[in-house]
């Protein structure tokens, strides 16, 4: 505390883009990230896309003297990629894995294998309880035809619900991560409106860095330039969001982003720019109202818009479930016809010799199609149920909002 009245907290957030064997100059960049973290001595460090636990272990060994407390969140096939480094004792942790996260057959994107999640660490600084969340939502890939929008909205809704229901005992809530949404997108408006979180970029008294706070910029040598053609200045998809829950106030005094190459180097830390916030927390004389921003009339419109998009995704998932189910039934019928033909031949009903090789190949093909389509049918059935559940939750929330006086 400064004068027993104000606490200053410096937060660093970065999508590290550390995918073993795929990310360019990964080991060199991870060393650079470790060097700047050790030099700057932030209070909290929130990292995403640290897919390799070895990279996390190397960072932990390098930063142990500056950040004695850390946690790596494990989930999915290759891990969540989320980790937190802290100068203060971590009291507890919790991980929530999102119910929807893309499609397993979209191998070129790979989000499904990552187990996208939100991680929570609880820390106590000068008597103030902080709930610190770190997350990474599903990527967009194509803004004009965003097939993953319903899944990302489900994730944003689950993130908002998770924060609301786990932060009731906290004094300050802090969220950092790659949300893969533009500031005006419905998912961001839903998240901030439903939780009351405030955007550090919009609230900062002083800003220094990329124009408009962009964190994916064209002059970063690792970005895919064609994806940013509609956005010559870049896009802002990495955020630090915060709010005070009880008798405290939080203000963002300063926000910075990196601007491409690391100081004195020919490469940046990542394909994303880092976000660094200086927050001031002070106690109020009177306790702040615990009422969340759900009373805002505009929030009903946001929930309606999100529910509509989830409904569109639900209809698409139902069509996919029907198509894969129909293919599975056709493959099963083909197998039954083959079995009947084999039995007829063995019973001496056919005059021609039995073509074993052709039947075997056709049987293997039918079995393969049956297994694949059955698996996809089950997956899309789960997807339908998750989308239906989220749509029902949103409908209930909308009813509550509309009944407010």
From TrEMBL:
Q: What are the alphabetically sorted keywords of the record? A: Hydrolase, Lipid metabolism, Magnesium, Membrane, Metal-binding, Sphingolipid metabolism, Transmembrane, Transmembrane helix
* One Pfam family named in its UniProt record: Exo_endo_phos
Q: Which GO terms describe its molecular function?
A: metal ion binding; sphingomyelin phosphodiesterase activity
Where would you find the membrane-spanning parts of this chain?
327-351, 357-379
Q: Which reaction does it catalyse?
A: 1-O-octadecyl-sn-glycero-3-phosphocholine + H2O = 1-O-octadecyl-sn-glycerol + phosphocholine + H(+); an N-(acyl)-sphingosylphosphocholine + H2O = an N-acyl-sphingoid base + phosphocholine + H(+); 1-O-hexadecyl-sn-glycero-3-phosphocholine + H2O = 1-O-hexadecyl-sn-glycerol + phosphocholine + H(+); a sphingosylphosphocholine + H2O = a sphingoid base + phosphocholine + H(+)
Cofactor(s) in the UniProt record: Mg(2+)
Look up the EC number in the record and give it.
3.1.4.12
**Endonuclease/exonuclease/phosphatase domain: residues covered:** 15-272
Q: Give the protein family.
A: Belongs to the neutral sphingomyelinase family.
Please give the name of this protein: Sphingomyelin phosphodiesterase 2
Q: Which organism is it from?
A: Probosciger aterrimus (Palm cockatoo)
Q: List the gene name.
A: Smpd2
């Amino acid at each position: 505390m400064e004068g027993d009245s104000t606490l200053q907290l410096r937060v660093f957030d970065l999508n590290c883009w550390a995918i073993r064997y795929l990310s360019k100059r990964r080991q060199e960049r991870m060393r650079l990230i470790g060097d700047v973290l050790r030099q700057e001595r932030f209070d909290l460090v929130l990292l995403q896309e640290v897919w390799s636990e070895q990279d996390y272990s190397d960072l932990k060994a390098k930063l142990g003297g500056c950040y004695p407390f850390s946690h790596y969140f494990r989930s999915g096939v290759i891990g969540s990629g989320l980790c937190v480094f802290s100068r203060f004792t971590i009291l507890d942790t919790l991980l929530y894995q999102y119910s929807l996260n893309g499609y397993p057959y979209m191998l070129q994107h790979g989000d499904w294998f990552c187990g996208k999640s939100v991680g929570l660490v609880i820390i106590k600084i000068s008597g103030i309880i902080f709930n610190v969340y770190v997350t990474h939502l599903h990527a967009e890939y194509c803004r004009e035809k965003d097939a993953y929008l319903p899944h990302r909205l489900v994730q944003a809704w689950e993130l908002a619900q998770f924060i609301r229901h786990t932060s009731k005992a906290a004094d300050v809530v802090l969220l950092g991560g790659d949300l893969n949404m533009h500031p005006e997108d419905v998912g961001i408006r839903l998240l901030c409106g439903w939780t009351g979180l405030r955007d550090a970029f919009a609230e900062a008294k002083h800003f220094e860095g990329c124009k408009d706070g962009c964190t994916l910029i064209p002059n970063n040598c690792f970005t895919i330039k064609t994806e940013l053609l509609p956005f010559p200045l870049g896009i802002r998809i990495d955020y630090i969001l915060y709010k005070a829950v009880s008798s405290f106030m939080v203000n963002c005094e300063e926000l910075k982003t990196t601007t491409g190459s690391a100081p004195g180097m020919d490469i940046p830390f990542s394909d994303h720019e880092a976000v660094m916030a200086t927050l001031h927390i002070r106690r109020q004389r009177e306790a702040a109202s615990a009422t969340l921003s759900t009373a805002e009339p505009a929030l009903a419109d946001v929930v309606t818009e999100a529910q509509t998009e989830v409904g569109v995704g639900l209809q698409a998932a139902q069509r996919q479930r029907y198509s894969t189910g129909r293919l599975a039934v056709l493959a099963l019928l083909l197998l039954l016809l083959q079995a009947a033909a084999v039995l007829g031949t063995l019973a001496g009903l056919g005059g021609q010799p039995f073509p074993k090789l052709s039947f075997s190949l056709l049987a293997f093909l039918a079995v393969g199609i049956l297994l694949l389509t059955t698996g996809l049918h089950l997956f899309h059935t789960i997807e339908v149920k998750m989308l239906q559940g989220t749509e029902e939750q949103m409908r209930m929330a909308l009813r509550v909002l509309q009944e407010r006086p």
